[in-house]
Amino acid sequence: MCKKLLQIAAGLGLCLYSVLMQAAEINFQNILQQERAWAGLQTKTVKAGDVEWIYSEGGNASKPTVLLIHGLSGTRDNWNRVARYLTPSYHVIIPDLPAHGETKTAAEFDLSIPNLAEKLRRFTDAAKFDPNLHIAGHSMGGAIAMLYSAQYPLEVKSLLLVDAAGVYKTANTAYLKDPQQLRQIVVEKSGDFDKLITIAMQSPPFIPQELKAAQEKLMVSQSKNTHKMVNALIEMSKLYTPESFGLLARTIDAPALIVWGKQDKVVNVEAAAELKGLLKNSEQPLILEGIGHMPILEAEQLVAYPYLNFLKKVK
């Protein structure tokens, strides 16, 4: 009898846990929706070739268009806090990159950086956005933004690079010296999300436990694709040397603003000066004291206000 009661209690416990997790996921999605609305964004969909893109859009479509690109294992929602300051004056577009967030792809989809840049161009065309874009990229999104700018120079009015990935001579972190180390920050089991936050942020914001669990579960479900993206970044480090990456960067004519967290543990801050030396038309890098690899989440105002000032100066 006691054994039976214990089995029933265990069953009820699992059922209750399942209900609580489902509620946390629903709450997590509701919070994201509220944050998008707070930032003046709406969720939209467009099909471009073999990709059905999910993206956020906000602001007046008659205003200059700003395209924001997230980083490895990120989503469009990484930019919400910055986008809030942009939507009153600009037309803001933030896609979930293929195999990230809600933009789904086939298992054999090519997740290389060059292909993502090309698919992003097809996305802007399919959605009929103004092709004269201000492009901003964070981390891996910065590498995509640079390649996009090099390939379509007449369609890029300006460039914002936030802790941008690349193949740098100043490789002072484990992740730059050996990109294979990126595999260690893939969220694929319980507890990995906390480890990632510790690496990515110097001063992480408070995240309620139930929301953290929902975010971790989402990232675990996408871990196979994240590993594919890590492989793509490793291949980029083989495809480009610091010299050939420098040649690519030197072809970019667009005015550029570089922002970096001084305590970045993923792409060290010395890379900001190196990148400025490569770009033809870059302002002095903005180095944020006490900030890690995620300024767009750690210190959104310190990114948004200088970016708005920069955009006003771009002709």
TrEMBL record:
InterPro entries, sorted: AB_hydrolase_1, AB_hydrolase_fold, AB_hydrolase_sf
Domain AB hydrolase-1: 64-299
Keyword Signal: yes
Superkingdom, natural source: Bacteria
Keyword Cell membrane attributed: no
GO CC terms in record: membrane
Sample GO molecular function, one term: monoacylglycerol lipase activity
This protein's name: Alpha/beta hydrolase
Organism: Acinetobacter tianfuensis
